[in-house]
Amino acid sequence: MNARPSFVKVFLTFARNSLVRDSMFRTNFLLQCLSSLSWTVMNIGFYLLVFRHTPTIGLESGWGKYEFFVFLATTWIINSLMQTFFMPNADEFSELIRTGNLDFALLKPIDTQFLISFQRVDWSSLADFVAAVVLLTVALGNLTTRPDDPLLLSGWTPVLYVVYVLCGVGILYSVMIALASTSVWLGRNRNLYDFWFYITSFSRYPREIFRRGWGVPLWGFFSFVIPVLVVVNVPARLLAQPLRPEPSVSWQLAAFTVLATGLCLGASRWVFLRALHAYRSASS
Amino acid sequence: MHARLVCWWTIFRIALEERLVYRGDFALGTLMRFLPIVTQIFLWWAIFDAVGQGARDQGTVAGYSYQNVVAYYLLVMVGRAFSSMPGLASGIASQIRNGEIKKYLIQPVDLLGFLLLTRMAHKLAYYSVAVLPFAFVFYLCRGYFVGGWPEADVLAGYVAALVMAFLLGFFLEAMLGLLGFWFLEISSLLFIYMLLGYFLSGHMFPLDMLPPPWRELVGLLPMEYLAYFPSAVFLGKVSGAELVAGLWTQAGWVVAFVLLSRIAYHRGVRRYSGFGG
Could B43 and A57 be called an inter-chain contact, meaning their C-beta atoms sit closer than 8 Å? Predict the structure, then answer.
């Protein structure tokens, strides 16, 4: 008998169970998809309005309407993956600690971080993923077929895009799991979740907009200390290529993103294990 | 009459004391709510840089300068502090669903009056704690208020708009919560209201930026009086006869939702069935 459970099989079981649960409340599932999509539509509406007044976000930044829609679509792709696979679980983790139910997870013969990270899949959040892919396709279609200076993409670009999207998910996951782990010391951390939402809101804008005035320290901090500014920026710049013919992503930034992902995952694993050591159960 | 006043005063005092228990959490939470404004400041900085061809302070968008837009977002935070009613509609719907509402049917306390007093106490507790983080952020951002303080009559109009924004927010959400008498589960409806409210109240951007006919259509709804209107009054975007007309329209919406929520409660109670102990 194999004592080591297969992570893939366990994950597929979790995913199937979540889908079964969602399909039991089909109307609710559809309404959740619609609510999720309406927020997306409102965001597009806001930026369509902005581009009625300006040709680019930032003077000569290269972030024109369709380049920025590539950025926006990349933001939603990464956020929807976070919402689908990790957010419900991080929420649950702090409750497990508070109620003492983490004991049951610790007793199971599988890595605890894996178990608490993948237990639930929120399938309705994938509606945003689909909307983002549609927006990305439309934006890239416009950029590659425009008469002046059409965008040229190499065969490697989509592969690198997927790799850097996964790096972005890895960085955001690390920040989230590290913050969720602090529930062990704080008992409850509602404000820290708000804090997660607020600091990751920096990732939703082109990083150069912060590199001015009193934003420079923020730009440095969120690029190199908590690197949320590379999460969307690197994959989106790879694809949309603003500021051509200059390189849109320097090799240093690309290499840094891969390194930062590894470091963030390692650091969050360390925080998680420290939290487990400090856990003293709350049950009787 | 005296007994009733004592009753209302007691409800108000208990609710106030209850809220002040978590004042540290309040203050921290309030300060954090300003964090998204940081990203808005830089987004609009970049937009105005492009509009003004490098001269950020020269460009205007729909009559708003860069400073106006940032001041607008800060003022919207004040407006929302008055008009947002977290948990009100969902609380009413949940009381209808689990039968708790029947206590208002057998006790000499009016549901809407009780909730209004409780909410007033909650808001008072919130402002007494939130005033410090608000003052701190507004002091840091004082440079964005290029026009300085408005004239006394405009300031009076602003205060009136904020007070009516509170009443409108309360009765609008109470009305939505009372729909629970007809539909037991209203959480999806509330989520859609929250999303639309964010857009239509002017929380996302100044509504003057909407092109025709969208601006006119949004003006037909009550939502703009929750956040956009008070902020526009302070910034002098609405003045003179337009300000007076706006205040009367806002008052009209308040009266309409007071009446609608009264009717909904009256009809809902007649429809309600309570079982068990």
Answer: yes
Residues 15-44 on B with a CB inside 8 Å of A are 25, 28-29, 32-33, 35-36, 38-39, 42-43
- Taking chain B (277 residues) in runs of 10, the rounded mean pLDDT of each run is 80 75 67 81 92 84 92 93 91 89 84 91 83 87 88 94 96 94 81 88 93 92 95 93 95 97 93 74
Q: How many CB pairs under 8 A join A and B?
A: 83
Report chain A's mean pLDDT, rounded to a whole number.
87
User: Can you tell me the distance from the alpha carbon of A211 to that of A33, in angstroms, rounded to the nearest whole number?
Assistant: 36
- How far is the C-alpha of B80 from the C-alpha of B86, rounded, in Å? 11
Predicted pLDDT at B22: 62
Assembly ipTM: 0.88
pLDDT at A160 over 80: yes
Q: Which residues of A touch B199 (CB under 8 A)?
A: 42, 45-46
Partner residue facing A59 (CB), from B43, B54, B196: B54
Residue-by-residue DSSP string for B104-124? HHHSS--HHHHHHHHHHHHHH
Confidence at residue A193, expressed as pLDDT on a 0 to 100 scale? 67
Which residues of chain A are at the B interface, by a Cβ-Cβ cutoff of 8 Å?
28, 31-32, 35, 38-39, 42, 45-46, 49-50, 52-59, 61, 190-191, 194-195, 198-199, 201-202, 204-206, 209-210, 212-213, 215, 218
B36·A201 Cβ contact <8 A: yes
The alpha-helical segments, DSSP class H, found in chain A are: 7-24, 26-53, 65-85, 87-99, 102-107, 112-118, 126-145, 156-181, 183-186, 190-200, 216-220, 229-240, 251-278
Residues contacting residue B109 through CB under 8 Å, at least 6 positions apart: B7, B11
DSSP state of A151: -
- The span from the CA of B59 to the CA of B72, in Å, is 16
Distance from CA of B213 to the nearest CA of A (A): 14
Nearest-10 crossing angle of helices A190-200, B35-51: 10
- Cβ separation A204–B39 shorter than 8 A: yes
pTM of the model: 0.87
